[in-house]
Amino acid sequence: MWISSRFFVILLLLNLDNTCSEPFEAHLRGPGFVMEPPGRVEFSNSSGGWLDCSASGSPQPTVDWVHADGSAVTEIHGVRRVLRNGTLVLMPFAAAAYHQDVHNTIYRCIASNSVGRIVSRDVQVRAVVAQAYKVDVEVLSAARGCTAILRCVVPTFVKELVRVVSWVHEPAIYIYPSLQGDGKFHLLPTGELLIHNLQESDESQSFRCRSMHRLTRQVVVSSPTRLRINSHRGIISPSVVEHTAHVQVSQDEGAVLLCVAQGCPSPEYSWFTHNGAGPLPVLSGPRVRLLGPILAIEAVTGEDSGVYKCTAGNVGGEASAELRLTVATPIQVEISPNVLSVHMGGTAEFRCLVTSNGSPVGMQNILWYKDGRQLPSSGRVEDTLVVPRVSRENRGMYQCVVRRPEGDTFQATAELQLGDAPPVLLYSFIEQTLQPGPAVSLKCSAAGNPTPQISWTLDGFPLPSNGRFMIGQYITVHGDVISHVNISHVMVEDGGEYACIAENRAGRVQHAARLNIYGTLYSHTHGMHSKHTDAHMRKMLMA
Ligand SMILES: *[C@@H]1O[C@H](CO)[C@@H](O)[C@H](O)[C@H]1NC(C)=O
Ligand SMILES: *[C@@H]1O[C@H](CO)[C@@H](O)[C@H](O)[C@H]1NC(C)=O
Ligand SMILES: *[C@@H]1O[C@H](CO)[C@@H](O)[C@H](O)[C@H]1NC(C)=O
């Protein structure tokens, strides 16, 4: 038996396709994040920072990083690396190597496989160059029997990153922040030290404050400062010297609202809420503690958000301040359904469900993405995305992205699959009558999902395997299959009824037409008998 090597290779490829493509396709799954990077990453130039991102799917997705404008994040030697496992590393750097677009910017992680592409939330990266700073103690002294307030003054350029961790009552008594204090000393959670009930013996005691940088963990201690007792013995009406104007916490965390007034005698504090009608006194309860200058609320909920007022009063008068508490409630974003299979020509509809603690959240700024690219907002009804006349190009990964005014983003992913569609012939050959000698090409093309396979027969039997027959098959970018049978030097015995059969798991379609070659016995015979004879002859030729 003689088979051309080219013909053999093609047969082999078709065979591989037949055995592998369908079970493989059934197991395809679009990417989903296993580890989505956080919304904010802060680090110091000496530590460097890293952003983890990983995704699952079938085939295993690849992970890349992009800038906010969608351009690829490149490696910069000694500055920025993308590890093989998807982690983006921003390396420790010298102050002079600070670059805004590397160290203070937005990154997004992209996971992609053959099914589609998804994009992570925005990651706001902020690197801080460690700078030397000094802290100083400021004493708001008071008269005997009253309260002195000691402040740790942090320079404004690092204020946001530095907190007071303790005070030292010289030589070696450490005082730590607490809600209540010990009756004499009270280090407020915001860093001020209150010294109650001043006595002669407190005069000339020394105090130092210790602060720590949140990112570099560097501890900076002030020089010791002496306490003095005011000789003034009259009444001083209260004035608010420190208050937390805006407290932002996440749901279920504890909130501490604080308001410190200077005055003598020591002021009494009252707290009010400003919700709706007028100021209502805040009452202590299982979650709410009134601790003088501190209002502590445990396990906050969205309902604790609002405007509060503290009032400090003594016989000399009253002072007050307004404070705002904002509770960030987490939201969950989900797309329904999260896998949708639609037939070609059908309509796909996805709904973006935004909930908080299980109940729907009102109008949100919803954006839809397809394979990592934002879709135009036309043709969309609120939270619903409709894809009419679904075609192969609409397959892939869809995302609903909710961006909150505070800047955090939340996203959910869903996959649109094309339902099975039986093959349809897009093009097929016609009957021809020829003289022996020239080359002949027969072509069929078909569409369907999964992409159909095309096979050929002559009078119901496989095509002869001789050097004059060549089968070629390829798949277009649209997923259509095109198949050719080319016969070089057509000969009398090549005449007969040719058929192309397109087949996938959803069905099968066939087209047949005759190729008549002058001077042949076969082209004039039509009965069963002659076909058997043809096949018999062919088998003898092949043998
Ligand atoms: C990737 O590798 C680095 C270093 O080997 C490791 O620190 C990091 O956690 C890994 N990331 C993930 C997503 O597994
Ligand atoms: C970070 O910046 C500080 C201040 O310029 C510098 O002293 C330190 O060496 C830098 N860290 C690295 C790793 O270069
Ligand atoms: C068969 O002929 C057609 C038309 O001439 C050509 O486009 C195609 O590439 C040929 N296929 C093979 C397998 O030679």
From TrEMBL:
Example GO biological process: neuron projection morphogenesis
Pfam annotation, one family: Ig_2
Subcellular localization, as worded in the UniProt entry: Membrane
Main location: membrane
This protein's GO CC annotations: membrane
Signal peptide (UniProt feature, chain positions): 1-21
SUPFAM superfamilies per record: Immunoglobulin
Matching InterPro entries: Ig-like_dom, Ig-like_dom_sf, Ig-like_fold, Ig_I-set, Ig_sub, Ig_sub2
Keywords attached to this entry: Cell adhesion, Disulfide bond, Immunoglobulin domain, Membrane, Repeat, Signal, Transmembrane, Transmembrane helix
UniProt keyword Signal, yes or no: yes
Membrane topology designation: Single-pass membrane protein
Keyword Mitochondrion annotated: no
Domain Ig-like: 31-120, 238-326, 330-417, 422-516
Name of protein: FI17816p1
Origin species: Drosophila melanogaster (Fruit fly)
Source organism phylogeny: Eukaryota, Metazoa, Ecdysozoa, Arthropoda, Hexapoda
